[in-house]
Amino acid sequence: MTPALAIRNVSHAYGARKALDDVSFCVPPGSFTVLLGLNGAGKSTLFSLITRLYAARHGEIDIFGHNVMRAPGAALRELGVVFQARTLDLELTVMQNLIYHAALHGIGPIEAHRRGQAALARAGLADRAHDKARALSGGQMRRVEIARALLHEPRLLLLDEPTVGLDIKARADLLALVRGLVQEKSLGVLWATHLIDEIADDDQVVILHQGKALATERAKTIVTEQGAANIGDAFTRVTGAAEEKLSA
Amino acid sequence: MTDAEAPHPYPLPASGERGFSARQYFICLSGVVWREGLRFLHQRERFVSALVRPLVWLFIFAAGFRQVLGVSIIPPYETYVLYEVYIAPGLMAMIQLFNGMQSSLSMVYDREMGNMRTLLVSPFPRWFLLGSKLFAGVAVSILQVYAFLLIAYFWEIEPPTTWGYLTALPALALSGLMLGALGMLLSSLIKQLENFAGVMNFVIFPMFFASSALYPLWRVKESSPWLYYVCEVNPFTHAVELIRFAFYEKVAWTSLAVLAAYTSAFLIAAILAYDPARGMLMRKGG
């Protein structure tokens, strides 16, 4: 089965500082994969490479078998992204934001309007289509960003720390929305976070620490292998062991 | 059925795995222009300040200096002209200079805030996306210039015949393109928003003052041959001259050639700078 996202031996450095060191993992279609790491672990660098902001110095990145450097058009069609920074145009209405995004994928305004209404209804924001983006709460903006990222019907969705700055309820709603999409649309999701409580037992977890992928397993498998009480404990053990190895 | 054979929810065009139809390219371009237009309408203060700046130069500076700075008869003028008339093309180019630098500023801001990234993850070729953004910026700057000309008309600044308004259009398009491409190139080189003020000082003021916008170059040559050569290689001088001649339904061929060369160079450099494999963005980190 072609993976939704395949990262193979990816390394990247900014000058002498190594941000990613031989990272490999896959996100299968219809799965929720958590990229877990502290701030500065290399999550944003990895997102920049997948979204082709710049090219990886070493290694390959494929989206549904399309290499992001060699076939960027085909790869990016399959990709929806929610960036860490808020990227809605605050001066425009919610629907105008969606229509603009659709145009960037070659979808005309009438079709964009139709898809936008359906996407907003799914996100529980059908009545906010003509409000300025500025008028939305943080959680609502995130939901619009997810609706927008899915407008061109990609099969892979990347989210870079989407719950940062949200309250508990908004976080839970957002997580439920995305998990629902994985179920309904068989979407492959890569969810970057440093928040342990966003991980479910059956999620695939990639622990990224100081640019290295230390573990790539189901959450419950990592917990069992580490003999830990929970995934938070397991994370501490995995990263602690790596640091001991480094200092030895 | 393997995954590769599974039907795609949004069918790829028959023209190939990467291809978009001409209609889709058009949708993308008009989407970018539409957004830029909406932003422009929402930022009224930007429009007002873009108008007030050249008007202050026209109403105050030029009025004050008309007695001091005499302008002899030089092409394209066939009679003595008032100083206001002389600096009008320079002010039109100034509107575009500020607009180009402002859109460059907004690109740095967008990059920091992430809006630029939503543009760059579009599956359209990157040169096309950057070109669309540039095109949108030029369209807005031309709109500003004509708004300025409308007010200047009541100050008796007008072309010899109404056709001048039309013949100025291609010149404004090329100069807008050159300044927009320069802004785009700068936006890729500037690491952070804070560095921008310095660039404004080092780009806008020298470009404007070391040009034929405010005084004819023969006057500059009289006072400083060295400065004259600087003015001669300044692309802004050629933008001003191209507009000046076009407004009088004439073509400044040398300026046209120089401007075309600068525009191509800045465009190519900007596209390379935003190229993921070669680009400057890579050196900075995300």
Secondary structure elements and their pairing?
The complex is a heterodimer of chains A (248) and B (286).
Chain A: E1 5-14, E2 17-27, E3 32-36, H1 43-50, E4 58-63, E5 66-67, H2 72-77, E6 79-82, H3 94-103, H4 109-122, H5 138-149, E7 156-160, H6 168-185, E8 188-193, E9 204-209, E10 212-218, H7 219-226, H8 231-247
Parallel strand pairs in A: 3-8, 3-9, 6-7, 7-8
Antiparallel strand pairs in A: 1-2, 1-4, 4-5, 9-10
Helix pairs in contact in A: 3-4, 3-5, 4-5, 5-6, 7-8
Chain B: H1 22-42, H2 44-65, H3 83-113, H4 115-120, H5 126-153, H6 163-189, H7 196-209, H8 217-223, H9 225-233, H10 235-247, H11 253-273, H12 281-284
Description of the molecule:
The complex is a heterodimer of chains A (248) and B (286). Chain A has 248 residues and is of the alpha/beta class. Chain A contains eight helices and ten strands. Chain A has helices at residues 43-50, 72-77, 94-103, 109-122, 138-149, 168-185, 219-226, 231-247; strands spanning 5-14, 17-27, 32-36, 58-63, 66-67, 79-82, 156-160, 188-193, 204-209, 212-218. In chain A, strands 6-7-8-3-9-10 form a six-stranded mixed β-sheet, with helices on both faces. In chain A, strands 2-1-4-5 form a four-stranded antiparallel β-sheet. The longest helix of chain A has 18 residues, at 168-185. The longest helix of chain B is centred in the middle third of the chain and has 31 residues, at 83-113. Chains A and B meet through helix 1, helix 2 and helix 3 of A and helix 1, helix 4 and helix 12 of B.
